[in-house]
Every structure is written in structure tokens, then in C-alpha cells.
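=== RUN LOG ===
request id: a7f3
mode: sequence -> structure
chains: 1
length: 134
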Amino acid sequence: MVYVLNSLLGRLVGCRLYSVQFVMDYVQLWFDSETSGDMPSLTCDVLPQVVLDGRRFAPAEPGWAEALRTLIGQNVSATHEKTSIGLKVDFARGAIQLHSTANELEGLEIATLSGFDDRGWMVWRPGEEAFEDL
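=== RESULT ===
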């Protein structure tokens, strides 16, 4: 199945971020929904920036992990997928954004979204979809 920009990411709207899993060199964000059996996860192979209460935290910055954990329990209010923005997931108190520079790329993938009941999934790579500018 082919997805247009933001169609699969947009399915996170209304879902709750219930877990953040820090793995050696990537982060997994786990979501759940009261209205469906979907249990989507967004695997961020490039560490995202976090905006919390108007302050931006970069991955290497002190407070970044705590800012990310603070978003646990909040529902997704909007999503954005666009060249020059990358991926952005909005919450009431902040946002998670993936838009790296070419220097920050270490692998072939930027992020992967999966875990929907209909088995819909998406992988984002440099030079494709919302990351055409990389």
C-alpha cells in the first residue's frame, strides 16, 4: 500500500504516548489508542529534538531525555510530514521532531512507524518523502 505524506503518521492523532524506550543508539516511542486496537511504535534511528513548554532540547543537550519522558501520557494533537520539517508529532505541552542534518545520519533509515492493526507501516530514508532535502 502506498501512503501520501502524513497519511500514516496522521493516524497517531488521538493516540497516547505511553512509553519511551531508550536503546543504545535509537529511541522507540510507543503509542496506544482508546478507539482502536492499534499499538503503533515510532522507531527513531535519528534521535529527535524535543520541544517542551516552548523550549527546544537537542539529543546531546542536558535535559533532553527528561523532556522526552515528560511527554509520556499525553495524546498526539497533530502530526506534520513535510520536506524541510521532516516528521513532527505535536502534543499539548510540546512536540517531537525528526529533521536531521546530513552529518547526523549514521544509517540508511531515519525512522520507522509500524504497529497498526491493518499492518500499515512506513520507513523514512534520506532523500525520500519528507527528507528529500537530505
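=== NOTES ===
The mean pLDDT is 89.
The first helix runs from residue 64 to 70.
=== END ===
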